[in-house]
Amino acid sequence: MPVLVASDLDRTLIYSSAALALTMPDARAPRLLCVEVHEAKPLSYMTETAAQLLTNLGDTAVFVPTTTRTRKQYQRINLPGPPPAYAICANGGHLLVDGVTDEDWHASVQARLADECAPLAEVSEHLLRSADPVWVRKHRIAEDLFAYLVVERELLPGEWVKELAVWAENRGWTVSLQGRKIYAVPKPLTKSAAVREVARRTGARLTLAAGDSLLDADLLLAADRGWRPGHGELADTDWTAPEISALPERGVLAGERILREFLKATRTAAP
Fold this sequence. Notes:
This protein has helices at residues 48-60, 71-74, 103-116, 120-130, 158-169, 191-202, 217-222, 233-236, 252-269; strands at residues 3-7, 32-38, 41-47, 62-65, 86-89, 94-97, 100-101, 136-142, 146-151, 173-178, 181-186, 206-210, 225-228, 244-246. By secondary structure, the protein is of the alpha/beta class. The strands form four sheets. It has a five-stranded parallel β-sheet, sandwiched between helices. The protein is globular and about 55 Å long.
């Protein structure tokens, strides 16, 4: 009965240049490993130490990357360690088994969304109509499941995000602001539901989780133990819960600390 480790990726385990938070003197900065290339440019990193920790974790637990990224975006990432047998993409909308979508799972998610919340077309149209082109750079539909905007953060009115959240709440959707992206996601589309399915399939006796954003809260609550870094939406609101550890580390060093905690908990749970 294995230990299942479900972790968010962006700003939890892997970091863009802008999110690294290298506040130490240059000579003491950690060595970095590039784990994602997009359009021939390096995009995401982890420390070399974190890479070794993740490799060790993959040998001792069922490691499940758990991301809001689309499948195409996820497949750009080249994580160290053994290839994960399971991965969760599109905030739980796609469960990958050996890299291939489980169609039965995806169909069950689509049926639940149709029953429980306003349609994607309505939400997408509202985003287009209410957002100001002055600060919107891109409007995207992800996997025909949810929508997001890429914005100029310094120009984004905070009140607009709050108003959007209220509007979405009344239609069964949630809003999350992560870096330069504003996500509108159906409430029934959750990472936790997909993680529970992986736990059922693997017979996991213990589930560990980590994440930094509002979209990770349900994942953390569903785990037996969880960790959040010292940055992100959850840290900004001092979000916490029983069995959730709020770490002080910020940026790429937080990813390293999270992996240390995963390994420690996994080894402690070993028979």
